[in-house]
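USER: For my understanding, would you kindly supply a protein sequence with its structure tokens?

ASSISTANT:
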Amino acid sequence: MARISRPPGFDMTYRPLETQTFGPPMRSRVPSFVYLALALALVALVIVGSNAASGSLLFRYVVELDSQRVLGARPLAAIVLASAVAAVIRTRMRGVIVHPEGLEARDTVTVGWPRVRRYTWPQIDKIVLDAGQQLIAVDLWDGRREWLPAVQERDQLAAALEMVAVARAIPISGGTGMFDPPDEEDESA
């Protein structure tokens, strides 16, 4: 079912002036930061062990026993550090981006595989901003409801989506009502 457009009928041409990015909440970033801290501790341990006195237990474990291992301490520390940095970057890439052309929802699925979903403004039939739920959803033209990933600045995302929805005559469920269109009585006065 098509939306009823407001007069003069050109509301579908509205675009946000700039791209806004909303990153993931801190609670989803904490595990990757903990992993990075452990990786840095491992790198520090390997560096200290490599520079320790030749008779010390740490030097023997890090340097002398490397010849008996399949993977040495230095390459292992480098791999773990690279993995931790990748985890932090992958976590930071999650979130929602509001483009002039539409929305982009970035999330990760199993085993950290990224998933990017793009929705243009004409595809969106309704925006769900219910305050009881922390997530925001969009109802699409084909009847699907897509949940946007959780973001740290949920209220700012909701306000940006509400501004676009009011300007483009997209129905909103919930919201603040701050961006209501002017009444027809006010326009005639």
Summary: The mean pLDDT is 81. DSSP finds five helices and eight strands in the chain. The chain has two domains: 11-24+97-188, 29-91. The first strand starts at residue 20 and ends at 22.
